[in-house]
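Quick one: C-alpha cells for this chain, please?
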Amino acid sequence: AVSTRATTAPGAEPASSGASHPQRRTPPSRADDVANNVEFPRRVALVLAAAGLVAPAAPAHAIGFAKELKKKAVSDEDYLSSAPFAFRAKPHDPVRYYDVQRGTGDKLEAGKTAVIHYTCRYRNLTAVSSREARTLGGNRTIAEPLEFKFGKLPSDYSRALVRKMVVGIGAEVRVDPELRELYVVNTVFDGPADRAGIKANDAIVSIDGVGDLANVAIADIGALLIGDAGTELVVEVKKGGERAAGVVEKITLVRESTAVVPKKRVVEVEGGGGLFTGATGPKPPAVVYVPEALEGMRVGGRRNIIVPADVGYADVGESEIPPGATFRLEVELLEVRTPAV
C-alpha cells in the first residue's frame, strides 16, 4: 500500500478534514506588498515607482547629523551703526556692525576684562588673526585670545596723533652696501612716490641727473629729495622685480608735505598681555579697543565690524592689509572677567 501525505502549498490555508476541495487564497497584489513594506529588486521598484505604487520615503534621520542650512546673505541694510565716539582726541563717525550670533552669557561692561578672538579679513582673505599660531623657539607654537580692560581707550588712541612732516617725495631710502645701490625702504601712503607706483625694494638710479648714488652721502641724497612744495624732480627707478634685467623707468614727481612713516610700536593696553605685547605678535586693529564698537556684546556672541583705515591699520598697514585699506573685523567674545577687588 502506498501512503500519501497532504501538503500545504505556500500561500494556501491547510485543508480541513471535512472538505474535499481546500479553498485557495488569492495571491497578494503589488499594492498590498507596498503597504506591507515588502522589499523588491531595484528593477521592480523602478517599475512600481513609475506606476505610482511606491509610497514616498520617509526623511532620513541619522544620529548626530544635522544638515547645515544655507547661510543667510548679509546685505548692507542688515548692518547697524554704533554710537559716535572719540578717537585720537577727535570726534569719529559711527562704525557699522552686524551680529552674526548673539551671545547668551555675561554682558560686556565697562571695567571688566574682555577675552576675545579676532580675525581681520581683507578681500575675504585672513590677514591677521589671534587664532593663528605663532612659532616660538624649539618649534613650539602658541595662539592666545586677546585680553584687555573694556570701556576705555588705550592712551595711544586717546591723544592726538602727532607726525613729523617733511616736504619731499614721501619715501624713505637707504644705500645697500652689497649691491651698491640706493633702494626704497617704504613709501608714505598716498604720497608722491606711492601714487607714482614706486614701491619698497625699488632702486633709485638717479635724482635730477645725479647718478652713482651709492657713493653719495646720505645727507646729500636727502637734500636732493627734499625741496619746496610744488617743485618737480625727475628720478630714474629700477623696479624691484626687474632690477636684474636693468629696466629703468623715468618718473617725474612733485614735492609735497608728507608725514614721516612711523615705526610700528606696541600699544600699552590695560589688562592685556601674553602674545600681543611682543613686537612680533599679531597686532589688533585700534577699533577693537573702542567701547562703542563692542557695546552690547555678550559671551558667545560673534560680531562683524566694517573697519575704516583710521581705526584699523591707518597709513602703515599690517600683513596683507595695505596702508589706507578698509577691511572686515570678526570678533568673538569668549569670556568676561570681573577684576579682583
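Residues 175 and 182 are 4 Å apart (CA to CA).
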